[in-house]
Amino acid sequence: MSPTIVLQDGAPVLLIGFPGGSRIISHVAASLVRIPDFVMDPQRAINAGHVVDRTGATELEQGTEAAALAEALRGLGHEVNARDLNPGLHAIHLTGAGLVGAADPHREGVALGD
């Protein structure tokens, strides 16, 4: 699952990865939906926050848009914990205008360009 290379018409359009752990699937999958389907730039997609459910309490990344889901999820019967999930997602979106990079601000690394 990580790194993931998304192809369109046989050419790469998105490269995304997460450094490891049991949250890889939820973190990568969320950005794979946000970038092409919601037309978010990679940095906004990464910064939006994460929702993780590994068959226990639903974890929401505190201090992000994801934390706003707490009451709605509780209303559906979920046990919810807002916490620092220490993500580490990095992405490169290949567009017609060039490369658009994104680095998770919680970890080391930055996205640079010309």
Summarize the structure.
By secondary structure, this protein is an alpha+beta fold. The chain is built from 3 helices and 7 strands. The protein has a 4-stranded antiparallel sheet with strand order 1-2-6-7. Strands 3-4-5 form a 3-stranded mixed sheet.
How would you characterize this protein structure?
This protein has 114 residues and is an alpha+beta fold. Helix content is 23%, strand content 31%. The protein has helices at 24-37, 42-47, 70-75; strands at residues 4-8, 11-17, 51-53, 58-61, 80-83, 90-95, 98-103. The strands form 2 sheets. It has a 4-stranded antiparallel sheet with strand order 1-2-6-7. The protein has a 3-stranded mixed sheet with strand order 3-4-5. Strand 6 and strand 7 form a beta hairpin. It is elongated. The two termini are 29 Å apart.
Question: What descriptors fit this protein?
Answer:
Glutamine Phosphoribosylpyrophosphate, subunit 1, domain 1; single chain; 3 helices; 4-stranded antiparallel beta sheet; 7 strands; alpha+beta; 114 residues
Total beta-strand segments = 7
Name the strands of the widest sheet in spatial order.
1-2-6-7
Rg, rounded, reads 15 Å
Name the shape in a single word. Answer: elongated
Helical residue percent band: 10-25%
At the first level of CATH, the class is: Alpha Beta
Report the CATH architecture.
Answer: 4-Layer Sandwich
Mean of residue pLDDT?
86
Order of helical and strand elements: EEHHEEHEEE
List the helices and strands and how they pair.
Elements: E1 4-8, E2 11-17, H1 24-37, H2 42-47, E3 51-53, E4 58-61, H3 70-75, E5 80-83, E6 90-95, E7 98-103
Parallel strand pairs: 4-5
Antiparallel strand pairs: 1-2, 2-6, 3-4, 6-7
